[in-house]
Amino acid sequence: MAATPTAVRPADDGQTLLSLKVLYFCQRDSATAQGDRMCFSSTCAMAAEALKPGCLAGAGQPDDRYLALVQRFGDTTNSQAQVAALRRLGIQATFRTDGRIEQLIAQLRLGFPIPVGWLHHGLVNAPRGGGHWSLVVGWDPETRQVLMHDPYGEANLVGGGYVTTALGSGKGQRYSERNWGRRWMAEGVGSGWWLELAI
């Protein structure tokens, strides 16, 4: 049986806010030339540091160090390279394309943040694009909002693109299940891209 990360597990009675304590990393301040395209790596770096504190210690920025690890296995956009890098850090990771909100809530209740891939371009009723990754760190059952560390900034869920990309602006965003969910499950309920993590 996989260990549960008790250090980040929130109190949960099924009715109150779920919120994991996870450090935020912004992809846009990368010291590499990959800053505009390393959302997947910055997202997974946040998850790795939450589950294995100190695993990215060293000189420079933690997500840049994580990116260097990913590049041993492939490109920053490659899901299998991300899985391999996380496994190298001692984190079990499985890439899945069957995501639904209930799975995110279940993972949060176990204390696991969730990397999720979604379409951030186009209108909410017709999302498109190559995709973007961010980290689910909580859930508000009262407002039905997903708490998100978005490494790029604050997304415009209705119109597409971003409201702001100022450094740090993506920390603790509240994305509505209704609008973000349509971008995440673009092919219908149960079609979201995500990484299932365990330690």
Description:
The chain is of the alpha+beta class and 199 residues long. The protein has a single domain, classed as Alpha-Beta Complex (Cathepsin B, Chain A). Helix content is 25%, strand content 23%. The strands form two sheets. Strands 1, 2, 3, 4, 5, 8 and 9 form a seven-stranded antiparallel sheet that branches. Strands 6-7 form a two-stranded antiparallel sheet. Strand 4 (132-140) and strand 5 (145-149) form a beta hairpin. Helix 1 (39-51) crosses helix 2. The radius of gyration is 15 Å and the shape is globular. The termini are close together. The model has no long low-confidence stretch (mean pLDDT 94).
Mean pLDDT: 94
User: Given the helix and strand composition, which structural class is it?
Assistant: alpha+beta
For the sheet with most strands, the description reads: 7 strands, antiparallel
- How many beta-strand elements? 9
For the record, the count of structural domains works out to: 1
Task: Summarize the amount of helix as a percent range.
Answer: 10-25%
What's the name of the CATH homologous superfamily?
Cysteine proteinases
* Oligomeric nature of the chains: single chain
What overall form do the CA principal axes indicate? Answer: globular
CATH class placement: Alpha Beta
